[in-house]
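Worked problem 6 (solution included).
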Amino acid sequence: MNALAETGRTQVVRVAAVWGTTVVAMKTLKKGESFVVGDTPGAAIPAPDGLVLPQLVIRASQGGWELDARGAVGGVLRLRGRDEDPAALANAGAPVPIIPGDYGLLQYGLFSIFFQFTTPAVMMGASWGPELLVILALFSSGVFHVGMLGILRALMTPPFIPKPVELTSPEEYAARFNLHRAVDEEPPPAPAADGEKAAASGVKDPGAQDKKPQGGGQKIKGPEGKLGLKGDAKNTELPGEIRPTTHLGGLTEVLSSDTGQEIRNTLKTIDTVANALGGLNSANITLGGGPGTSLRGS
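Solution. The predicted structure is:
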């Protein structure tokens, strides 16, 4: 008797009909059911031609099932933990009760009958719960995919952030849509306040009251003041008769000297370009591009 019989669970008998090495019929017998071979209604398989075997090889009894081994010529049989000879049991002709733990194979030539005690299959319930391995597989798959997406997000270039509408100027909109805006006239400057006028005026020019001599001579006196109009004078004209001056500057003094007179006489003799360029030692004067020794050329 095996461990299944010791558990106390309901036992059933699995019976199979085999032809050679092929299973041609199989049935699980519950309490009160028999394995029928023949042409009667409810038979598991028709009886093979030329073979003599009982119609109920495994039949139901009051205490369980019985084995009818008549017609068996060989096989393997284990009853109550001991090996039995199927042919000897067939010659006895009496059915033998079988209990959980017994099994056997009865051969009738090429046709065989196999039986074995087993427990019925447990019917699946309506509710289904995930297995632990399924949960672990889903968790590992989620970690893998989330990690890959995180790596891609960390290594990718961040998307371009557009400029907010509040910071976009009208000139940028006009340039984007190729629009020409009207030029606004600049408003006239606002009149300055009294404090601003005083700050803009700054320190008055002290030249009118400056008593220091300038340029090695005396400052002009009269209605013009020392450096400009002052008092109740209406104009800045110099008093007296208008006369030509003798010297207008440093160049006038140089030309009035003996050296200046020689320079003027020399300049009067140079009345053509050829005379001006005569010192270049060139017979042919070339003003543009060309050969020879001149302003341009080799």
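Discussion: The radius of gyration is 68 Å.
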